[in-house]
Amino acid sequence: MDQTLVEEYRGGALECVHSGHICGVSISGAVKYAVGDVESVTYLRSSGKPFQAIPVIRHGADRKFGLSDKETAIMIGSHRAESFHVEALESMLAKIGVGEEALVCHPTYPLSVPASEAMLRAQKPKRSIYHNCSGKHLGILALCKTMGYPMEGYFEPEHPAQIEIVDTLAYLSECPREQIHIGTDGCGFPVFAIPLKHLATAFLKLACPEVIENLEIRSAVIRITSLMNEHYEMIAGSERICSSLLMDPNIVAKGGAKGVYCFGLKKEKLGFALKVMDGSEDEWPIITASILEQIGYSNQETIDRMYQLTPTDMINDNQKIIGTNKAVFTLETRFLS
User: Fold this and answer.
1) What is the pLDDT of residue 334?
2) Is the pTM of this model over 0.85?
């Protein structure tokens, strides 16, 4: 059963309640921290992008096409189509040798409000590369050209690139492949649902690749997570939680639509996955800050950045404090043998 994670008060009265689940696993693979149901089956959505990028890096598609580190990093990102994102994406199109028509993700305007407003003022059309998943799609198309896979249907579950992605996720999450539920994401890609504890395990391994026995996957994970930290702006964008967390070189983090958020801590050797059941993303920073505080995380600057994104004080358009946001959960500590 889910538990209350965040309460919002306006004028002293409770206005909103956000419930969900949290799971934290140790390097042994055992559940160390829990709120709600750690077995809750959760769609990864875009939190799965680091795993979807592993076959691309494993088979050297980034090197084959001479992609820069920033261009490679945006394959893992949910970008906002800010100017620096678009520059990288246009360069990738040219280097890989594909047109936007090859992308299954639908043309749209940028998720960045300033970028979208600029496009509208200039009367520029929607484009597929403005879609926040376009970097991922370009990465898989690069993989197809590298491996000789068909470009057509690269997004279908039975495509060899997609089969390798599922196998990779099963391996890192320790979730049996036959238990991974496959749906379709908003961008047209397969999307996977697994129990929250397996998702936390996968992010533990992103943070602690030394436990990955497959050397090719381990090497790909090390490169991917290094890029996420070094080029955090490509993973999300200005004033976004992923980029703010990834400024901390001790953290590997990625969120997805409908309330799922995940991160791994390198020094502490912990992996966390959480799900806000109403699908809201606004609570991610305050929930993450509370988790870090409760485990005694040492980097206060990282915690402070979370509270800057979601302040405990609710401020209206006139910059007046009119209520409060409060994380109200307590991590249940599991005693490990």
Assistant:
1) 82
2) yes
Low-confidence residues in the chain, pLDDT < 50: 337
The residue written with tokens 């965040």 in the block is: 6
Query: Mean pLDDT across the chain, nearest whole number?
Result: 96
